[in-house]
Amino acid sequence: MRWLTRRSRVPPVLRLSLAVILAAASIVGLAAPPSQGQTSPTNPNGGAAHEFNPPTKSPEAPAPGDPTKSFPDSPGLRALGYTLYQGTCASCHGIALQGTPGVAPSLRRVGPGPVDFYLSTGRMPLDQPKSQPLRNPPLFNRAKIYALIAYISAFGGPRAPTADPAKGDLTYGFHQFTLNCAGCHQIVARGGITVNAQVPDLEQANPQEIAEAVRMGPYLMPHFDAKQINQHALDSIVRYVLWTRSPINAGGWGIYNIGPIPEGIVAWFIGLAALVIVARLIGERMDERT
Ligand code: HEC
Ligand code: HEC
Which residue from 52, 126, 162, 181 has its CB within 8 A of the most atoms of ligand 1, so it is best to mutate? Predict the structure, then answer.
């Protein structure tokens, strides 16, 4: 074990600069430029390349006969919703929900689903119109969220979807998730990145939020109608997503099930450590000869 405790003869300054260079090189390697076929996240004018949701990406309605989620509604709630809306949302979405071109989409006819989803997951109010809405602690409590839902859904729109994992089938859910979601969210829903967007892991979304996300397609996510993903498929997908939170890691170390690339990086770390040990051992032998 002398090789571990032996003091290196390389001056500390040189060792430090070598470490900095290696760290920089590894970061450059990780942040390699996008390969051909991928677009750069910003356009030449410096603005975000992401176009706002065209008005056509309105939320998909649940099919007739499918279960829907009801939210409380009353004149009092709508009045509170109006006040909250004017104070926190109107600057971007317009005083009459008409939207502001280049800033934020119209909220007319979005219905309760997207409002519940964006407020429950703390995505709205957004700080910057151009930034991706991300999950945050919700700004409003449940009563205020209900007020905003009541006010905004008075302007029309489909009823909110819902899902019941108890009615789903795990194997079918796995199949449907692989088909429709895994390409972006990774096979056990640990998330990742696509061109121009961060794809969240699905460890925090509750069944209601998952159903709403599937039907509305937040940000760059596509939306799915009841023909593409019917109620049974939706229930099953939700069941599968809940299951991924405690998967069985047969065959060894799961490393949080983050997928082949991060797992490859872990292999690199182990490999690098082994190389350093080997280098140290070789260095020792040279010392003995001289
Ligand atoms: C094209 C890539 C893509 C596909 C396919 C996709 N998603 Fe998404 N998903 C996203 C992105 C991007 C977001 C983040 C949206 C945002 O920032 O508001 C997201 C967000 C979500 C969220 C919100 C998570 C949270 O914690 O707030 C849920 C739930 C979700 N997706 C479920 C699904 C399900 C279920 C499917 C399959 C039926 C699916 N997604 C298919 C890209 C995708
Ligand atoms: C800084 C500007 C800004 C503020 C403030 C803001 N929003 Fe948004 N909102 C946006 C943008 C931009 C989008 C489009 C996000 C995207 O690309 O999907 C959006 C999308 C939405 C959507 C989804 C609409 C759809 O396409 O179905 C809802 C619902 C929403 N906002 C509700 C609210 C509510 C409620 C508030 C107030 C509590 C609020 N927003 C405050 C900018 C804002």
Answer: 181
Query: What share of the chain has pLDDT > 90, as a percent?
Result: 55
Q: Which of 41, 60, 48 is nearest to 226 (CA)?
A: 60
Burial of 262: CB neighbours in 10 Å, binned 0-12, 13-18, 19+:
middle
DSSP 41: S
Query: Ligand 2 centre and the CA of 191: distance in Å?
Result: 22
Q: Stretch 239-265: mean pLDDT, rounded?
A: 70
Q: Specify the pLDDT at position 231.
A: 97
Question: What pTM does this model have?
Answer: 0.76
Instruction: Inform me whether the pLDDT recorded for 261 exceeds 70.
Output: no
Nearest ligand, CA 107: 2
Which residues are near ligand 1 (CB < 6 Å)?
121, 123, 132-135, 180-181, 183-185, 194, 197, 199-200, 202, 204-205, 209-210, 213-214, 218-222, 224, 229, 237
Question: Closest ligand 1 atom, CA of 204?
Answer: 26
Which two tokens mark 109? Answer: 């006819």
Task: Please give all residues whose beta carbon lies within 6 A of any atom in ligand 2, as ranges.
Answer: 52-53, 59, 88-89, 91-93, 104-105, 107, 110, 114-115, 118-119, 124-126, 129, 133, 148, 216, 218-219
Enumerate the domain spans of the chain.
68-243
Q: Which of 219, 220, 238 has its CA nearest to residue 229?
A: 238
- pLDDT digit string, tens, across residues 103-150: 999 999 999 999 999 999 999 999 888 889 999 999 999 999 999 999
Least confident among 150-154, 196-200, 206-210: 196-200
Class at the top of the CATH hierarchy for domain 68-243: mainly alpha
Taking the C-alpha atoms of residue 277 and residue 58, their distance in angstroms, rounded to an integer, is: 58
